[in-house]
Specification:
The protein has 273 residues and is of the alpha/beta class. The protein has two domains: 124 residues, Rossmann fold; 96 residues, Rossmann fold (3-Layer(aba) Sandwich). Helix content is 37%, strand content 18%. It has ten helices and 14 strands. The chain has a six-stranded parallel β-sheet, sandwiched between helices. The radius of gyration is 18 Å and the shape is globular.
């Protein structure tokens, strides 16, 4: 149920999700570097756009290098950086205070917030914002402190709402599962920045200097990667190396224009567009 692939001829930049598209856990998926080389050879740009908020762009580059995938930090946009930039924009343009942030997350999120000028705190009484993302080392005490901060008035912000995280063992609890726990404990729903919300795609296209019609979003999850891109006018490709099945892509109310088995099949679609 693919829509015509001829529109791929207009693509000037490709946004790739990472988990389930570029790799699963620490295992690279087929054809990644060949796909990136093809885009470069045909004058197209790319950006890795991931809801994973655990790492800094430099840490993602290091992880990719171990898989023999060559990228620069500027070619990675994670939901941690997107969230920090969004929050800084609220301070600069909408009068929000630049107050201390209590974080449920890892180095990617703490570094991004620090680089954006926000002081960090572990004290629930000091926090103006509570920003939560994936944390593979969370403790009950950290959950308790973030819960208390939200209950005491800290504005609750989530990096992304992915309920699962792909791994070699299968889907594991993702940032959305952590947000659900905090929402249940506090009675407050987070304001979420990452995909499928528009801000993530808009930041990505601005970085590449391209319009929605010139952009292809490649993702393995319909509910995040694809569903948020279609209303903005991006071209979309669902890939079958991660979470969503072919049947689920096809049965969506607005299916992706293209469904491919993997990245080598995507590049073949480009070659024949």
């Amino acid at each position: 149920m693919n829509r015509p692939a001829a529109s791929l001829r207009t693509v000037r930049g490709v946004l790739f999700d990472m988990d389930g598209v570029i790799y699963v856990g620490d295992t690279p998926l087929p054809g990644v570097q060949d796909a990136l080389d093809y885009l470069a050879e045909t004058g197209r740009s790319f950006l890795f756009v991931t809801n994973n908020a655990s790492k800094t762009p430099e840490q993602f580059v290091e992880k990719l290098a171990k898989m023999h995938i060559r990228v620069r930090p500027q070619q990675v946009l994670g939901s941690a950086e997107a969230t920090a930039c969004w929050l800084a924009g609220q301070v600069e343009h909408h009068g929000w205070p630049r107050g201390p942030v209590i974080v449920m997350g890892q180095a990617g999120l703490t570094t991004a917030l620090t680089n954006a000028g926000f002081p960090l705190t572990t004290n629930p009484d000091e926090a103006v914002y509570a920003v939560a993302g994936i944390n593979f080392e969370l403790t009950y005490e950290s959950l308790a402190n973030v819960t208390l901060a939200i209950r005491r008035g800290a504005r609750f912000i989530g990096t992304n709402a992915d309920v699962t995280y792909p791994s070699e063992r299968g889907p594991l609890p993702g940032a959305g599962s952590i947000l659900a726990l905090l929402a249940t404990a506090t009675g407050q729903q987070p304001l979420v920045i990452g995909k499928p919300n528009a801000g993530m795609y808009e930041q990505a296209m601005a970085r590449l200097g391209i319009t929605p019609a010139e952009t292809l979003m490649v993702g393995d999850r319909y509910d995040t990667d694809i569903s948020g891109a279609i209303p903005l006018g991006l071209q979309t490709a669902g890939i079958l190396t991660g979470i969503t099945t072919r049947a689920e892509f096809e049965q969506a109310a607005l299916p992706p224009q293209l469904i491919v088995n993997d990245l080598p099949h995507l590049i073949e679609a480009f070659r024949h567009a």
